[in-house]
Amino acid sequence: MFNIDSAPCFWETVTVRLPNAEPESFRARFQVMPVSEFKQIDLGDPDQVAGFLETTVTGLEDIEDGSGPLPFSDPLLARLIDRPDIRAAMVRAYVEGIGRAAQGN
């Protein structure tokens, strides 16, 4: 019997490729967005992408600022979303994570 999870989530590694530096990674927990909603997002619109990430990212791990690990918070998420390289990496991680889940079915 198949049990439908009403609020599926998954953890995915987010790899940020910085210019002139080695890639760095952290982990993000994503709330799965229904396809009917995701397909309406214009990934070329910065405001829509920010809204998508604010809705789907529900946890962050392995992020520090030099003084130690940073716990998940809305200000931390906003700080990450404000960086175009990190924003793109989080969207890429979501799409790749959903794709891997689909391949497993």
Short recap of the structure:
With 105 residues, the protein is an alpha+beta fold. It contains four helices and three strands.
Describe this structure in words.
- The structure is a single chain.
- The longest helix is centred in the C-terminal third of the chain and has 20 residues, at 84-103.
- A 3-stranded antiparallel β-sheet has the order 1-2-3.
- Strand 1 and strand 2 form a beta hairpin.
- It is built from 4 helices and 3 strands.
- It has one domain (30-103).
- It has helices spanning 35-38, 46-56, 74-81, 84-103, and strands spanning 9-16, 24-31, 57-61.
Number of domains: 1
Q: Provide mean pLDDT, rounded.
A: 92
User: Separation of termini?
Assistant: 15 Å
Q: Write out the strand line-up for the largest beta sheet, numbering strands in chain order.
A: 1-2-3
SSE blueprint and pairings:
Blueprint: E1 9-16, E2 24-31, H1 35-38, H2 46-56, E3 57-61, H3 74-81, H4 84-103
Antiparallel strand pairs: 1-2, 2-3
Question: What are the salient characteristics of this protein?
Answer:
single chain, 105 residues, alpha+beta, three-stranded antiparallel sheet, 4 helices, 3 strands, globular
